[in-house]
Amino acid sequence: MILRENLWLVAAGLIVGGVLAVLAPRLIASRLYGVSPVDPPTLVLATSVLLLVAFAAAYLPARRAARVDPMIALHQG
Predict the structure, then answer these.
(1) Quick count: other Cβ atoms within 10 Å of Cβ 48?
(2) Helix, strand, coil percent content, the chain, rounded in steps of 5
(3) What is the model's pLDDT at position 53?
(4) pTM beyond 0.85
(5) CA 51 to CA 54: how far, in whole Å?
C-alpha cells in the first residue's frame, strides 16, 4: 500500500516533468552540452534511474515496516 502510494507520486512527477521537458526545449537546450533536449535515449535513461531510486526509497522502509509485529507496534505507540 505504501509502495503503491509512493510510486503514484513518482509517476505523476515523471509525467509533469516529461511534459515540461518536451514543451521547453529552448530553455533546456541552453543548459545541456552535447545532448538534444528531446533525446529519447537520454529521457528514457533518466526516467529509468529515477524510477529505480524511487522504488528503492519506497520499498526498503515498507519492507522493514511489514516485518514488525502489529501488536508490538501498537504497544509502543
Answers:
(1) 10
(2) 80, 0, 20
(3) 92
(4) no
(5) 5
